[in-house]
Design a protein that fits this description.
Blueprint: H1 13-24, H2 27-39, H3 47-61, H4 68-77, H5 81-87, H6 95-138, H7 149-154
Length: about 160
Amino acid sequence: MDTYNQEPPAASWMDIKVKMRERFIPSYHRRETLLKLQRLQQGSMCVEEYFKLMESMLLKVGLHVEHEEENVSRFVSGLRREIQDVVDLYEYSTLSKVLHLTLKVENQLKRKHEAKRNTSSMNITLNLGKVKKERKSKQLPSPPKTLHLRQICLEP
């Protein structure tokens, strides 16, 4: 008699996935991934990278489908503050809608930062040009000639 296969065959794909997880993934792995997911912050990542990382963690712990509202809340709370403040002004119901919104906000903020950087670099360039023109137009007098002690003593 075959003692290895004492369990009845899996009835569905979901049953197979559950059995495979139980057998091959350590019990602490899910707990550690959940903790990482709770602490996940966007930080220096772009929105798309942050979303992909969160999505992969959700898949690992099996929360990607059942808890849409919690996932939306988790995603928004991990965003950078400047993006989060704008996103909070809008209504969204699904993860895909909030992702689309955050991508728009991120692009808008990038354009604003680039415009500020270009404006400030133009001001610096203009100011440097102005200083050079002033120097040329004013022709500063040459520094006074330094006299040696011997010359001072010999002069009448």
